[in-house]
Structures are given as C-alpha cells and as structure tokens.
Amino acid sequence: MKIGCVKEIKPQEFRVGMTPHAVHEAVAHGHTVLVETDAGLGAGYSDADYTAAGAVIAADAASVWGGAEMVVKVKEPQPQERALLSPGQVLFTYLHLAPDPAQTADLVASGATCIAYETVTDRMGGLPLLAPMSEVAGKLAPQVGAWALQKANGGRGVLMGGVPGVLPAKVLVIGGGVVGTQAARVAAGMGAEVTVLDRSLPRLRHLDEVYGRDFRTGYASAALTAELVAEADLVIGAVLVPGAAAPKLVIRAMLSTMQPGAVLVDVAIDQGGCFETSHPTTHHDPIFEVDGIVHYCVANMPGAVARTATQALGNATLPFLLALANKGWRQACADDPHLLAGLNVHAGQITCAPVAEAQGLPYLPPSEALTL
Exactly one of 270, 336, 338, 346 is catalytic; which is it? Predict the structure, then answer.
C-alpha cells in the first residue's frame, strides 16, 4: 500500500502522524510511505530521519494526498485538506465529528473511508488510540491550570501547592477516566487539594482504593458538582462519551457562584466541551474570560509536547496502521471488530451511531459498510 503522512496544518499543531520508527516498520512490511517535507520538524524529526527509515519525501501536501491510498494524520483534516480527499481513499486520524457538522458533510461528500482514532475500542471497553493522548492532556491540565491561575494571566493568584501557613488551591476534576485520573495525580503531586467526581461507582471505588491518600472522590450529582464548582480555584473538565458530543456539566449560571479569577480547563473541547461557555482556543491564544472566570480550551493540548505525544500516539496506532496496510481496510476491519468500531464515514454514509445521532443524520451500521 502507498501510505501518506502530511504535515499538520491546524494552528500550533506540532505532532506528526508517523514517526521514523513507524515508517521503518511499514517499509519492512513492503509498503511505500510518502512523507511531506518538514512534516516531522515540530516533533524533532528531520526529512533525513524519514529518508533513513525508507520514506519517500514529497515536496508538498498535494503530492501526498494525490499519491497515497491511505493518509495517516493526527488532527482532523482542515477544509483545504478535505478538498484533497478522493473516493476510496482511507483516512486514519482523530476526527471528533459529533460537534463538527461541516467536517462531517465534507467527509461524506468526499466518498473516502474515514477511520477515527477516538472510536477504536479494545477488549476491555477502552479506547486504546485515545488513551495515550488522554494521558498527555490529563497531565498537562493541572500544569496549564496553574499557569492560568497566575494573576498576570487573569487568574486568582493562587499557588497550587500553597506554602506553610497558606492553604493550597482547591482543584475539582469532573470525570474519573484516563484524563481525570492523570489530572488528579498531577494536581495532587503539585500539592493541591483535589476532588474527582464521576458517576461510575466501580470507577470511584477503584480511584479510592488506589489513590485514596492522594485525592478525594465524589459521586457526580448535579448538586454536588455545583457545590464544588463554587468552591474551586481550578475546575478540570475530563468527561467523555465515546464518539458523542460532551455533556454540558457546568452551565453559565454557575460561573456567578465562583470566585473571580477561578479557572476552567476544558479537556473535552475536541468533543464540543463540557462547559457551556467553552469555545476552542489555540496554544497561541489559549485563554479567554467569561463573567470573570478564566477559560483554557485549547483543542490540541498534547501538541504542546509534540515529541512525547507523537511517540506515544505512534506506539498505539502502529499495530492498527499495519493491519490496515497489510490486509486492506475491509479485511482488517472484518477481522477486528474493535478496529471496525473506528469506522466513522464510508462511501458517503455515516457509520458511527453517536455522530449520526448528534447531527440528526442517517446511520449505516459499520458491519453493513463492509459490503459497499
């Protein structure tokens, strides 16, 4: 198969879809890999690194999109990239379609086969291609929250760990999954007073058993959430409904109960955000204020640590990438129902139920798409 890897063009996105190690593996399996020139620079990989791994360096993105049977990316294709998709071409990347009707319409119109990292599953019900970036984003969330809390950045001027005689910051993490767990661990490690809310009692028991000495847990009722939001210096939104738009758990009216300069970090912004007042921001201009509350809503947080994030994502995606290339997408998905769960769009049809439901569009089960 001819596999393509393009340079990411979303603002301040420095990751790259394939590392030189991944290229080496693909070439060793008999595939050709086209890599756009300078695609890996943001993650610390030169064209020479890719050439040494066996890649063919392409002069521009159009050459990759035009010459590849499968394009491997990190972030969802931007409008100018969607225009380069062709019928039957495979796109393997993060998509986050539920809150993005424009992208959905373009992918449907393209006739391409689009497999989303974030809906590929595993035997345990997890999301193995989302997990590494969730780990990165979760660990970054307290870090960027601490920065936003600084007075010069509009925050309350509260130090996460306090000092002797001065209480630490109160941090509320909404969601006890991968993002929330990592965020709570780091925030607690910074010395903050941390509470994690979730609605899964088994998950809460697990967190309490493993991390009970580090942070507290609570059941995410609407009343308790509102109470703790009002008390918090920093609220980290870490909820996920696989493939679907994130629920709005902090509404605008709740902001008036918070201390001026408190901070909201919305890690769910890729799926539309879990705070009513959220909208996507960039690393270049990461924060905004609503009703005196600082919002950090960068839609590609792991891009800030591009080398670590690229390597972590590459480790997770490589087995699936090789399966798609070695077998072709149909056979690979037929052999692996967990990979099939990643199929979001094929031949003009939406094949991910939460996306279809979120946008009120027709849905074709992915198993039926295999015959198209």
Answer: 270
